[in-house]
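Side project, low priority. Logging it here so it doesn't get lost.
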Amino acid sequence: MSASPPALSYEPGPLTRRIFLTQQLYTLFGAPPLVYLMVLISGLQGDEATSITRTIVPPLALVIGCISPYLIIRLAVRYGLSLSPGEAPEHRMTRLLKVPGIISAGIILNTVSAAVIFTSAAVVLHGKSAWIIPWAVVALGLLVSLLMLQQRVAFEKILRPYAIADFHKASGRVSQVSSGFLWPRQSWYLPYAFALFVACTLVATASIIGRQAYVAHEFLMDRLLQGGVSPEQTIVFVRESIQMLTEGSILPVALVGAFLLVSAALAAWNLAQQQKEGTESVQRAMENLVHGKPQLPDWISTDEVGVLSATTARIFEQLKAFSFSLQSSAQSLRDCAEQLGDSTVKQTEVLTHQAAALQETQVTAQEIKHTSVLASQKAENVLQLTERANEISVQGESALQQGLTGIQQIGTQVREMATSIRALDERARQIAHITTLVKGLADRSNMLALNAAIESVRSGDAGKGFGVVAREIRTLADQSIKATRDISEILEDIGNAILSAVSLMERGSERVEVSLGQIRDFSTQVQQISNIVRENATSVRQITAAVGQQDVGIAQIFQAVSDLSKGMDQAMHQLRTSDDVLSRVRGVAEQVSGIVSRYGWQNLDEVPPPRS
């Protein structure tokens, strides 16, 4: 966390010394060209320049260069810092903003007086022409005015913290109405600075070239007035004069021009930096306002940016007054809402007790109604179950009869299936006999094929074809034997399965007969149950009618209690609606107060110590 800037001292001594040191630094920078121009304009050369420089310059440097500027600065600072009892801070701020202009004007007049003294000494001591005095006054006045552009910005920078402190104290009461040289505006000050630079350049250049031209003219006149000068010598003298003018002007003009250019560039840069700092300060103030941290701009000046900063301060003051007014209104609205809320709470308590008693009555009636409805539903359910049981008993008798008939048909079908299976077993036995015959034929074919193969071997080459046929017949015989063997095994399995099926059919037929007897007994019992269910259905109808009449009476009682409960609910709903409205009013008041509090307008009344 950065340390807070130190508090400002309103004693004129330290501030005077600081401004004086700054002025002396700029004086050291501008003194050489000023002395050179005064010597040049005065027309002093050689011993004249040396003698007058030794005798006049030291006392001028002491009195005009040090003592007078210090006194001017001290008087201006004392004037700016003074604050009469009961005087508003903005009045001192206005004086502080004028102090740089006062110092600049005093130093310009002080420097012009030095030029008058120097040139007057040249006129008196060395017999120079008196016209050099106004010439020097104009030239040095313009040059010093150009140098004061930088010094004025430096003086404003030193004095600005004090002006900003009074600006913060004055808050939105600042109104800049001053004008003139002590209150520069960029609309005329920048053109004035540019015109000053052009005028200084022209005057300095004209002074150097004019003085050198005067020297060259004197040289040419001295040569021409000697007599007996031929035209060729005249041309030579003219060329020497021109060369003297050129050589004596180029270097001084270049040096003075460079000095003026640097001075103008520094002045422009300082003015631009001042504009940048001012606009950035106002921008930071606007950004702080956007982020809910209003703070006056740390800037005040005589130019348009200073006017913008003062206008911003007045806007902040108006917003502050509006916000506090809005906060006060929100507080009044919240107090009214609190009073109305207290009244609503008392009404709610009374209605709550009444609603509680009515609620208990409604709950009791609801329980009675619920019990009655439940009894009626149970009776209806019992009646429905009884009717359903009667229907089921009738359907059961019919189903038993149908089942008995179906089982009898199943017994008949089982016996028919047993007969069919026995016939199928007889057919399988016949197929097995045929298979035995086929196997015998295959054995004989195999034997004949063997004999044929033996005969083909005996016959030699003539019996080879017959041998091939014999082998094929033998192969077919072997396959036939294998197929008949497989068929015999399958038929044996079929026979065993048929015997098992016949056995199962016989046992199933016996079980069907047993089941038929059981079903006949169960049919008799179902008929007895159906008679009992019919008798119960009559009794349940009588009970249901009685419960229905009781339910009608209880419903009428519950309807009356419900009507009372609805009326109470409407009253409670209206009270709850009032509570919601009051809550919204409180919320709006809190929100407005919170917004105003978050913006921290009270910080504008606390003037922080500005940076020195």
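Brief comment: The chain has eight helices and no strands.
Revisit when time allows.
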